[in-house]
Description:
Layout: E1 7-13, E2 18-23, H1 25-29, E3 37-41, H2 46-55, E4 63-69, H3 72-86, H4 95-98, E5 101-104, E6 112-114, H5 124-136, E7 143-148, E8 151-159, E9 177-186, H6 188-197, H7 220-247, E10 254-257, H8 261-270, H9 284-298
Parallel strand pairs: 1-4, 4-5, 6-9, 7-10
Antiparallel strand pairs: 1-2, 2-3, 7-8, 8-9
Helix pairs in contact: 5-9, 6-7
Amino acid sequence: MDTSGHAFIAVDIGNTRTKFGFFGPEELARPFPTAKAIHYEHEPDHPRLFRWLRQNAIEEKPVCWCVSSVNKTRFRALKDRIRSHRGTGVSSRDPESLSDTIQLLDRKDIPLILEVDEPDAVGMDRLLVALAACHAAETEPLLLAVDLGTAVTVDLIAPSKHVTGQAIGTIGKATAGIFHGGAIFPGIDTASRALHSMTDRLPRIDNVDPSAARFPGKNTVRAMEAGIAATIIGAVSHCLSQVKNAEQLDRLPIILAGGAAPAIREAMRRAGLEMLDYPGFPDLLLSGIALAKRVLRSG
Length: 299
């Protein structure tokens, strides 16, 4: 179905929250697209989502909902919400005439070469962050894409502009680069909840601020915060050192994404890690969805 006349909303369904990014024609036309407006939900909230549509003058237009999801239950619930709302008469137009489309992205929609053992098992969130990273940092021969959510993923990415040797023949013009795999470990909130639920006396910390964490912590909460921050920064540093040593690199920049990225970026910089800036920080995955949709339209 031709969706070129539709309003475009990128949807990132994670395990703990859902992000919606509205891209107008101007934003989609940019070499690196960034969302014009963003809406966040930790729990499904029918009224707030559709108020957001009205505020951005989207409700009266047909919408292409382009979705990346790591949670099947949340995706089904979103589909039901969209269909229910568009069919309730809340919009002044006939719901059938809106002709909304809901498109769930698949791995085959992502123009990356996957140099991993099980390509079909790689999460869509990792691939879309990698895709956007290839465009945001196309001048870098190698970089680490770090997505900080419920889990932290650290992936090694090679933008296609710098790919040489045997891989050249396997890369088409639309291919953004090579995904080499990486590491996965608990995110900030996941680590905090695990420390509380799996011990008898450690408290629950609802809002860990890694940028404020300092070692040594002078009380239990501060010690937990220092440990969580050190775990994440130390793990990323370890991944970086392994690649630099193996590839004999002088530098290996990092591009951060995800809800916890703003809180930990300065702490990583203090640790001597090189951070790359990009438009729309920290919502790199939403830009990845827009880039994937662009490839699908051109195909």
